[in-house]
Amino acid sequence: MNSKNPYQQYKKIQIDTADQGKLIVMLYDGAIKFINNAINLMPPKPDNMEEIHNYIIRAQNIITELMSSLNMEAGDISQRLFSIYMYINNRLIDANMKKELEPLQEVKKYLLELREAWEEAAKKAPKEAANSQSGGINIAT
Fold it and tell me: What domains are there in the chain, each with its CATH number?
């Protein structure tokens, strides 16, 4: 364990101790980071096409993880998110095949919006759980 650098140790601890909402936000952060990296390498030049490809694939892997983590029995919201993730994945495929900037910018916009919504939900979840566990009446409204 001492062979890892301190940043890697910090990130591992952060992931190991995060609740589900924070983990989802972290996944969005990772996807956005990889898309930004690919965007920054556009327009493609012969020497960075593989690097662009790798960043887009890493973003796709995160989208796949988000898709697989959905509880499809939870109802309509999961099905809508699945459709959004499928669309995002298809746009990433387009961006990767054609090495185009526009699909990456579109995907980034959607991911930023989704990330913001998940971050809000993650902030509210502990408060709602605490209120429901206390057995009292919620007078905060």
Answer: 13-130 (1.20.120.340)
SS3 assignment, position 136: coil
pLDDT band at 9 (very low <50, low <70, confident <90, very high): low
Element spanning 79, H or E: helix 76-98
> pLDDT digits over 84-98, tens only?
999 999 999 999 999
Q: What is the pLDDT of residue 45?
A: 78
Contact indicator for 23, 15 with CB cutoff of 8 Å: yes
Cβ distance 99 to 49 under 8 Å? yes
C-beta of residue 78 within 8 angstroms of C-beta of residue 89: no
Give residues with Cβ within 8 angstroms of 43, minimum separation 6. 99, 101
Q: Are 52 and 41 in contact (CB under 8 A)?
A: yes
